[in-house]
Amino acid sequence: MDAALSTLVAHLLDGDSEAALAQARRVRASQPDGQRLLVEGLEAAMDGMSAKCTTEQFNLLEIMLTGRAAMAVAREAFPEGAIPCTRGTVVIATPQGDVHDLGKNITRMVLTTKGFRVVDCGKDCPVAEMVAAAAREQAFAVLASGLISPVVPLVRQLRGLLRERGLSNVVVVAGGAALKQCTAEALNVDYVARDAFDCVHFLEGLRR
Amino acid sequence: MTAVVRARCGARSQTIQAAPGATLRRALEDTDLRVRTGCNGNGSCGLCRVRILSGAVSTPTSEEMLNLGPALVESGLRLACQAVPVGDVEIEVVNLAPASAWRPIPPEALCSPARPEVTSSVGSARISKIAVDVGTTNLCLALWSDEGQGRLAARRGPNPQSGFGSDVVTRLQAAHDPAAALEQAHAIELAVAEALRDVTVSDGLEVAARPTIVAVGNTAMLSLLQGSQGGLLDPETWAAPATWLSERQLRWHLGADREAVVHLMQPLGGFVGSDLITAALAANLLPGEFPALLLDFGTNTEIALWDGEILWVTSAAGGPAFEGSGMRCAVPADAGAIYRVWGGTPLRFEVMGGGEAKGVCGSGLVDWVARLRQAGALSSRGNLVDGTAEGALSLGGKGSDILLCKRDVDVFQRAKAAIGAGVQLLVRRAGISCQDLRRIVTTGLFGRSLDVANAQAIGLLPAIAPQRVESYDNLALAGCEIVLTSADGSRTIETLRRRTRLLNLGQCAEFEELFVQSLFLAPMGVEP
After folding, report:
1. What is the DSSP string of B319-344?
2. A99 pLDDT band (50/70/90 cuts)?
3. What is this model's ipTM?
């Protein structure tokens, strides 16, 4: 990686939006290739953050700051909103009965900067709406993030509803405080992610 | 000056710091070596016998001479309710009270701006009115006589519903099953009966055949007291006035031929309970200076802001970090907990009960984090600047297993940030800034142990002049007592209710921005 991109990654890991934006402009001035900025800048920063976020070293503030800085760079580098989608489309939501969507928002930021197209259905979202979005947007995965336990029975319905619409091939991933206490079998999902980075690793594995 | 009391009974022993002027009975109250009494500590029953093994205590009183006689007093026997240590002492508890999960609440812990005087009474009387604060973790009771003798006793004990889950959502979910819902309601009834038995045995008090109970609590607890989950798991109810609570009175059986009429006080709405409104009453929020902020700290911290016109209220689910859960070094505020940390290198600390440190409780964590920030050992983002090889900082010197690692700091930051975001949202809705606050009142889990300057330095409290910040132990119960014993209290509650406006943090667009800003270990509203 060249020095300018290394500096950008360092600013992103620092969560310094202002410095990261300034550096991203310098990178774009000398290297107009947006793909390099995405892969060697934003994705590399997210990989760095993922490596830092072990169970013992997890820090929500650092993740939020890096995520926000990366999103700021992505928005400016791709002003039309078309951040290159290299890894496919996913649908994400916090299911009905839960309005705590911080975890969902973090996952959306990490996925976006890792090259996924993320369709965000918001919080307190009926599961039927998540399934409809998956059909409409041709998503390969549906992600459910829930902090509190009332969402558990709703998440269990997702696979069945997808199957009814002929979307048996769509992968279902669950995450968040309430859901990660359950097994994938108990939730009737393909995978239960420990955190946003674990979710990304699982989805990346599917798209290789 | 505090005196060290070394108490023993058979193979058991305990070391306690006795407050200046406190009797031996009082010093033993918060331990497993409580003495039995039959007169609520006025020296007339002669049951609370202890033997002075070494050290000096106050001169024998006439009650001791009457109940023990000169020969026994000469041999070292004394009444714990009369004898006051005048230095460090070693004693043997001769007449031990039966083991109980219930602990007395000292009278000064129920003082409030609305009732600043200590309203305890000593002597035998009949309990006929009971104020109950139903907390998620603890139940607190204040027991009053009908005969103008004021408060006779107060008790704190564990909420037995914890078997259904330590958090309210898990308990509410369990209550979907009608049998489990009734079981949770019944558990509280049994616990109150047990507390009354403890008072009867330990303090020699009688309970009237038909006592009156007023109960306050968070919305979930009140719902469960009725034997239902009250639709509280539906987000539509979270920002709505609480209209689901039945006006009907409950009847609790509290032992042989004893039945209490129970009045549940309506919550404010959403997850903001009636405990916040009685706390506002006891804090004199309405007649006092405004803008005034009230924080009732807990797993679910309830916050009220009085701006002179509207009482803005919300609840912030910060989690149980301050209550001794989710961090390896954290313990509840009980004997063995470090509750205050100060000094430089090495840090110094105080332990509840004066014995060996088992961990750090909420107020100690606030102090510790603030001192580490001040010393530059912890960054405002929560990174340990100078950790040990294990990546953790220790309290208590080399070899101490009281450790703070980055993950623990993260849990602490989240708990603090939920509260900080809640405060800032209320302040914004009222159209003021934190600096405009004329008064801050804190109550709940930190009690009076919270160091205001440290809490302000890390952003747990708005940074206004420290003399404008007041801390109390249990304003919710103190306010419940006022409602129980005065008609004015109920009128003020209705006024407060009419002026209340509820905010649900999860449905406020600015919550995430304020939450992230509040994750910094820095004064409130300041992003380093």
Report:
1. -GGGGT-SSTTB--SSTTEEEEEE-S
2. confident
3. 0.78
Taking CB atoms and an 8 Å cutoff, what residues of chain B touch A150? 169, 173, 233
| Contact between residue B236 and residue B230 where contact means Cβ atoms under 8 Å apart | no
Residue matched to tokens 């419940």: B480
Fill in the amino acid letter for B478: A
The C-alpha atoms of residue B94 and residue B33 are separated, in whole angstroms, by 10
For residue B156, what pLDDT is reported?
A: 92
Backbone angles phi, psi at B476, to 5 degrees: -60, -45
Strand B292-297 versus strand B439-444 pairing type: parallel
Residue keyed to tokens 């001035």: A29
Q: What pLDDT score does B36 carry?
A: 82
Q: How far apart are CA A11 and CA A9, in angstroms?
A: 5
For residue A102, give the nearest of B234, B507, B515 by CB distance.
B515
List of chain B residues whose C-beta atoms are within 8 Å of the C-beta of residue A123: 506
pLDDT tens digits, one per residue of A181-197: 789 999 999 999 988 88
Across the interface, do B235 and A98 touch by the CB < 8 Å criterion? yes
Q: How far is B173 from chain A (nearest CA, A)?
A: 7
> In order of start, what are the domains of chain B with their CATH numbers?
3-93 (3.10.20.30), 103-267 (3.30.420.480), 288-528 (no CATH)
Q: What is the DSSP string of B130-166?
A: EEEEE-SSEEEEEEEESSS--EEEEEEEE-GGGGG-S
> Could you give the 3-state DSSP secondary structure of residue B402?
coil
Residue of A60, A61, A97 with shortest CB distance to B234: A97
Does A123 reach chain B within 8 Å, measured CB to CB? yes
The helix or strand, by DSSP H or E, that contains position B426, with its residue range, turns out to be helix B406-429
For B117, half-sphere exposure in the C-beta direction (CA atoms, 13 angstrom radius) is: 5
Contacts of A175 (CB under 8 A, 6+ apart): A103, A107, A143, A144, A145, A192, A193, A194, A195, A196, A198, A199
The domain locations on chain A are 3-77, 89-207
CATH code for the structural domain at A89-207: 3.40.50.280
Q: CA-CA distances (angstroms) from residue B380 to A70, B5, B394, B409, B516?
A: 21, 41, 19, 11, 12
The pair of three-digit structure tokens given for residue B354, joined into one six-digit string: 């004066």
The closest CB to that of A100, out of B234, B506, B516, belongs to: B506
Q: How many Å lie between the alpha carbon of B511 and the closest alpha carbon of chain A? A: 10
pLDDT at A1 over 80: no
Whether pLDDT at A2 is above 90:
no
A65 neighbourhood in chain B, CB within 8 Å: 381, 516
- Residues A123, B410: C-beta atoms closer than 8 Å: no
pLDDT of residue B8: 92
B362: which 2 tokens? 């909420």
A191-192/A171-175 β-pairing:
parallel
The nearest alpha carbon in chain B to A105 belongs to: B512
Residues of B in contact with A15 (CB under 8 A): 381
Q: Which residues of B touch A182 (CB under 8 A)?
A: none
Contacts of B507 in chain A (CB under 8 A): 99
What phi and psi values does residue A119 have, to the nearest 5 degrees? -100, 110
| CA–CA dist B57, B51 (Å, integer) | 11
Nearest to A64 by CA among B527, B16, B476: B527
Residue B462 carries which side chain, given as an amino acid letter?
A: P
Among B238, B503, B519, which would you mutate to test the A interface (most chain A Cβ atoms within 10 Å of its Cβ)? B519
Token couple for B450? 């919270």
Summarised one tens digit per residue, pLDDT across range B89-132 is 999 998 888 777 898 998 889 999 999 887 666 666 789 999 99
Tell me which residues of chain B have a pLDDT lower than 70: 1, 40, 119-124, 229-248, 386-391, 397-399, 527-528
